[in-house]
Amino acid sequence: MRTDAPPPTDPAPDRPYDALSRAEATEAVERLLRATARLRGLAADRYPLYAVDGNWTFSRRGSWTPGFWAGLLRLTARITGDRTDRRHAAEAGARLAERLDDDTVTRSMTFWYGAGPDRPDLAREAARRLLATALPGGGPIPVGTAWARTASGRREVEVDCWGPLVRLLAWSAPKLGSAAQRAAVAQTRSCLDACLTATGPRIVERLTIVDGTPAPASRPTSAARPAAWALLGLAESADALAGSAPGLAADCARAAVRLSRPPPHDGSSADDTSADAITAVALHKLPRPTRPTRPTRLPAHTATARAVTARLVRERLCPDGAFPGTHYRVSGPTGGPAPEAARVESVWALFFLLLALAIDVELITPDEF
To answer: Taking CA 256 as the corner, what is the angle to CA 349 and CA 227, rounded to the nearest 5 degrees?
Structure first.
């Protein structure tokens, strides 16, 4: 992978888009905030996972998604500034401490989105414990043994947590030292070199690290969510590593442009609305072009992000703030996974859609979450 090429320019071709007006986006934010408040009342001290036909499934520990619920409450508090919302967010963030010892890389999602700079000691402790699991010789951080992965998870890397893991490690590096930065670089090199294919938006979700070298451990897939997670990883790495590994960061930005042109998920796809929401956030997080565009023209990736969000709001967001359409394999009648994935409403889809909208109307900046 070349690292000596000049920094990328913004995707150049103009493309029509139909973004939400500020009034439309603000009204959609309000719908999601009301839905979050209702869900908070139902959840009590449990974590919402997903809903089928409006009926939510809750978990005491939150499975792999507690950071998205805590993050949704944290984002709500950031948007409203309300004292009660801040209290709920603080309580949810503090509860995450019980997940520090989980042997899984999903701790990066849990503690970046759910705690982050708002609970810096907790987030840094999570980063420290993740670093302790890194593969020898300055290698990446493996999946871990949770979720029935057993020993194989000690030598496997997945694309899903790439983005939040790099953000958490890079943010922690000033306190944790160069090991955190090296791990962020190793994670990015492994995913960039082995997860992306030369055949467009086809992603290798899982790698096996053999003698320090990543090799595919799953077949390339064109499914929506792996591509969205990969795009988010590229965008976060392009920003987080720009100072410490500028060549690698530039490679990530170029790969993100290739992956998102044409955008793999334009919001009108019936495949997975959570993937579309992740895609919108990832596009917002891509670095601005080094060569300025016309003053009246949005950067193309920002325009595309707004188009994705607009289609999701107009076509998928319900009047009551429900946001169904996540493709997910729920629990079957005997407790194991159902034979086929269902279309559900998910806590991570709610989080990413609200985050995309909040960035759209400049309630927060892309680097805050």
So the answer is: 40
Is omega for the bond preceding 262 within 30 degrees of 0, making it cis? yes
SS3 269: coil
If we measure between CA atoms, which residue out of 117, 145, 116, 141 comes closest to residue 130? Answer: 141
SS3 percent helix, strand, coil of the chain, rounded to 5, is 50, 10, 40
Closest CA to 279 of 298, 262, 292, 297: 262
How far apart are the C-alpha atoms of 49 and 58, rounded to whole Å?
6
- C-beta of residue 220 within 8 angstroms of C-beta of residue 204: yes
Helices (H), 45-154: 66-80, 83-95, 107-114, 120-131
Instruction: Name the token pair of 167.
Output: 């953000």
Plot region of 53 (φ>0 → left; ψ -120 to 50 → alpha; else → beta): left
Helix (H) / strand (E) element for 307: namely: helix 300-315
For tokens 């442009």, what's the residue? 257
Q: What is the pTM of this model?
A: 0.90
> Model confidence over 45-99: pLDDT tens digits?
999 999 999 999 999 999 999 999 999 999 999 999 999 999 999 999 999 999 9
What confidence tier does 154 reach under pLDDT thresholds 50, 70, 90?
confident
User: What residue has token string 């805050």?
Assistant: 368
Handedness of CA 118, 122, 127, 130 (dihedral sign): negative
Structure tokens at 186: 């190793």
* The two three-digit tokens of residue 331, written as one number: 């629990």
In angstroms, what CA-CA distances link 258 with 11, 18, 168, 237, 301? 9, 22, 25, 15, 11
CA distance 272 to 328: 9
Q: Which candidate, 18, 356, 204, 66, places its Cα nearest to that of 364?
A: 356
